[in-house]
Amino acid sequence: MKTLITAATSGEAQRLKNKLDTDTVILGDYLQLPEFMLKAGNMIRLPDPKSIAYAHEMLALCLDNEIQTIYPLGEQEKILLKEAKQLFQEYDITIVHG
Predict the structure, then answer these.
(1) Share of the chain above pLDDT 70, in %
(2) pLDDT tier at 23 (50, 70, 90 boundaries)?
(3) Sequential DSSP letters for 18-64
(4) How far is residue 12 CA from its own chain's centroid?
(5) Residue 33, pLDDT above cutoff 80
(6) Angle value at C-alpha 60, between 89 and 83, nearest 5 degrees
(7) Whole-angstrom distance, CA of residue 23 vs CA of residue 25
(8) Rounded to an integer, what distance in angstroms lies between the CA atom of residue 22 and that of residue 69?
(9) Comparing C-alpha atoms, which of 97, 24, 17, 33 is closest to residue 67?
(10) 40-44, 48-52, 83-87, 92-96: which range is least confident on average?
(11) Which domains does the chain have, with CATH numbers?
(12) I want to staple 88 with a disulfide (CB 3.0 to 4.6 A). Which of 40, 41, 49, 93 is the partner?
């Protein structure tokens, strides 16, 4: 089981990752991330919440990366994923709203 935390470059994401204390946590962000962070494998580039197909792009990303839990930290991400919660539940993906 893998967990995705969005807004990877924020302090909140780093604190949450440390709190979860698991090797299966992946940090992701739609903002530009340095290439060396992506190559390390613990960070991934996420779809932009401005995309009209954002929920479906996130669902595909989760399925491709075996992600079962999402902690959306960006405000726009929270709103869009909350609206698509039922879609994600159909694939046993939990969206945790703080």
Answers:
(1) 89
(2) confident
(3) HHHT-TTEEEEESS---HHHHHTSSEEEPPPTTSTTHHHHHHHHHHH
(4) 13
(5) no
(6) 45
(7) 6
(8) 13
(9) 24
(10) 40-44
(11) 2-95 (3.40.50.20)
(12) 93
Torsion angles phi and psi, residue 96, rounded to 5: -100, 115
The 8 Å CB, 24+ separation contacts for 87-93 are: 87/55, 87/59, 88/59, 88/62, 91/59, 91/62, 91/63, 92/68, 93/59, 93/62, 93/67, 93/68, 93/69
State the maximum Cα–Cα separation within the chain, in Å, rounded to a whole number: 35
**How far apart are alpha carbons 33 and 9 in whole angstroms?**
8
Phi and psi of 39, rounded to 5°? -70, -25
